[in-house]
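Researcher: I'd like a structural prediction for the single chain below. Treat it as a standalone chain; there are no partners to consider.
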Amino acid sequence: MSSENFDCKYALKIGLLTLVAAATTFSAVTSYQVKGLLSNGAAPAGAPAAEAPAPAEAPAADQPTKKPSDYHFGIPYEKAVKAKKPMIVLFYADWCGFCVRFMPIYEELYKNHKNQFNFVKVNVEDKKYEAAVKKYEIAAFPTVFMVNTKTDKREQLKNENFGDMSKLDELMNDFYNKNK
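Model: Treating it as a single chain, here is the predicted structure.
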């Protein structure tokens, strides 16, 4: 084997090892930044600055902008679970865009069914509702349950029905009639 052939193979191995090391380092730094963003919204100290997110688009004129916590109707969860009347409980997060867009629908449901149901809003980020969030196994927002408070019978409203007020009214009337 010639020394020239040996040098070429050695250089190729060194180049591949360097490429693997660079890729691994890039992956580790990216993962480190992502973990920091997920945990507290900022890159960890000493990490290279991440690219700034694109500015948020202004909401369309017909899109709601109030946070769910800005709506004031219904009763507190603690009072609703002790009442004899069935309840409609909404689990939400103020930062959730779907929750923001759902609130006018929820308010309309309240207006249509406030005589049948107690309406409740539960902010999933509020520590006082931690047990309720676990009890209902909340994993997405918004999540809405119809609950017979006497028997704890629960029925979740499917998100696919949120855009159809007549379907929501029908589902709520059916639940009420079965769980008076």
